[in-house]
Design goal:
Elements lengths: L3 E2 L11 E4 L7 E7 L3 E8 L1 E6 L2 E6 L2 E5 L5 E5 L4 E7 L24 H17 L4 H20 L6 H22 L7 H8 L3 H12 L3 H19 L4 H7 L5 H12 L3 H8 L1
Parallel strand pairs: 1-3
Antiparallel strand pairs: 2-9, 3-8, 4-7, 4-9, 5-6, 5-8
Helix pairs in contact: 1-2, 4-5, 7-8
């Protein structure tokens, strides 16, 4: 399979994830991947080539791309750019689903595109400045953005092929969401397979095929992402963080952390402070 699943977690202080695109320096290519969240790539400077279902969408300064839940995409950033990315949990739109727990937004242009770009710029600038009460201002712009999406960009009719593709990846999304919600527990492959009515072998194969990762590695990535947030945003001890987020021991946490970040968590925390 030529694509993989991307793990997404909201910012610690926001109900969504917002960050500067990691390919800002250019000479960057992100392979085909998918996720349950709705994603917006807003280009403020430079140029990106966006690929959706083998179609290329060039993005220039002042333009954005809406990526639907479970939509396979890749990004080619050949040159320097200034791009802000928003990743919005799908459940945010649950009151506006059109069919089969599904919502889809258009990739076409709209006269409100300029307003969308202005909202995102204001949200990101405010978030970076972090002045007193910044969360309220960011969230107020966020809800205006959501209003524009559901009122002007939502597609009311979708093809059977789109629904079929969404259903295929949506089934796996339910499983990955369950893992993310229960990652602290002793969650074995066998117990997870039983919950969703699969054999352990089939579930393992399903994860490998559509998420591009085995079960043990995916669960560890979820735990590590939560532990990382705790590490950089609290004064909890390494041992407490490990126990809180499902690791068997502080040694297991340190080994996993060093494998991803190239240094033990204690040293990483010291460099940030």
């Amino acid at each position: 399979m030529e694509f993989c699943h991307e793990l997404i977690m909201p910012n610690k202080d926001l109900p969504f994830k917002m960050f500067l695109f990691e390919g800002a320096c250019g000479n960057y290519f992100r392979d085909k991947h998918w996720h349950r969240s709705v994603e917006i790539f807003a280009v403020f400077e430079g140029h990106l080539d966006f690929y959706l279902n083998n179609e290329v969408y060039p993005l220039y300064s002042g333009e954005f791309m809406l990526v639907n839940s479970n939509e396979i995409h890749s990004i080619d950033a050949g040159s320097r750019n200034y791009t802000v990315v928003l990743q919005i949990p799908l459940k945010t739109f649950e009151k506006y689903y059109t069919a089969e727990q599904f919502i889809r937004f258009t990739h076409g242009r709209c006269e409100q595109d300029t307003e969308i770009m202005g909202l995102i710029r204001d949200m990101y600038t405010t978030y970076c400045e972090k002045q007193y009460g910044y969360e309220m201002k960011v969230v107020s712009r966020y809800y205006m953005l959501l209003y524009l999406l559901v009122s002007l960009y939502r597609e009311k009719e979708v093809t059977s092929d789109v629904l079929k593709q969404n259903k295929k990846l949506g089934g796996l999304s339910m499983i990955t969401n369950y893992i993310k919600e229960n990652y602290k527990a002793d969650l074995s492959l066998e117990s997870l397979a039983e919950i969703f009515g699969y054999s352990p072998a089939y579930l393992s194969k399903m994860l490998k095929r559509y998420a591009g990762i085995n079960y043990k590695a995916y669960l560890q990535n979820v735990r590590l992402e939560h532990a990382y947030q705790e590490l950089v945003n609290s004064e909890q001890t390494i041992s407490s963080i490990a126990m809180e987020h499902g690791f068997a021991s502080s040694k297991a946490f340190t080994r996993a952390f060093q494998g991803k970040y190239g240094m033990p968590p204690s040293k990483y925390r010291g460099k940030r402070n």
